[in-house]
Amino acid sequence: MEPATRRPERDEREKPSEPQCRVRVYGGYSAILTVLSYVKEAIYRYNEVASRKGYYLKPVHKVYKRLNGVVRVYEYYGRYWWRKGERRLIYAGHERPRGLPEPPSNPLEGLSVIREGEDIIIDCSLYDDFSWLFKGLRSERVA
Hints:
By secondary structure, the chain is an alpha+beta fold. The chain has one domain (28-141). Helices cover 20% and strands 35% of the residues. The chain is built from 2 helices and 7 strands; from the N terminus they run E-H-E-E-E-E-E-H-E. Strands 1, 2, 3, 4, 5, 6 and 7 form a 7-stranded antiparallel β-sheet that branches.
């Protein structure tokens, strides 16, 4: 029996991760906005019902960061539930609260991008999953 503190052999150690593959899609944000406009209409109708129970559904979460003078917006598309607080909305999670009906489908669910102006940067695996969205737009690998 080997001791619990056995050190891994040289070839058993964790390998350094590969550089992350990313793609820049020129003008990709306009394609996202086109789909999001249809999704928002359904969510507005859904929120009329959900708000009666004190909840709201938002289809996107945005984080703003400034890097070397350039503003980058990290956008995550999915289901983000918020509940009414006394003065502001409070994040309630990504699972649907009990007592609310099933929300409308969101074809952008699972998409996460970095937006720089009208261009977006996206992981290669997500680019493959959402290739239907960026059909006809110029793209190039950036990392």
